[in-house]
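*** Fold description ***
***
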Amino acid sequence: MKRIGITGGIGSGKSYIAAVLVKMGYPVFNSDIRAKSLTNTHPEIIQGLKTRFGEHIYVDHQINKAALSAKIFSSEEDRLFVNGLIHPFVREDFNAWCMQQRGNVVFKEAAILFETGAYKELDATVLVTAPYALKIHRIMERDGSSEAQAKARMDHQWSDAQKTPLADFVIKNDERTPILQQLEEMLATIIS
């Protein structure tokens, strides 16, 4: 079974590409959704976050997203701690999920696939890109955020230029280049 990573910066449309792959019949593991679930349910993650940030980091047995986001975006040390705590459990979860799948190819959607080094455990990676202005527009439309807020979130991530050398395939999600054709060409190479 080939394990293929899908990544891209905020606003690139990686979730849209993942949804297209699902419609094409391919299983896709969403790392961000699983990380959020594990953050609320995995005892070691819960204890680690409470030890680091205090009991208030959870409210009614749910992660206090605003408090955790404030920590992550204001401290590189805290961001690295949280990633180092959560991502090994997400990898274990992905491996267990893979064992339940049928077929020759599975996909792992992850926002920070390159940043965490998780791409090294995969057979290939797909980077979804989009023009900067389009990403900003998508973030503002999706989240109801201001342009400054959207730019601030993008500035905390690696750029496409940093990610591209690590990617095996690049899918342009610029609302002009046909997506299906790009995916079919990528799949033909992976499956061959």
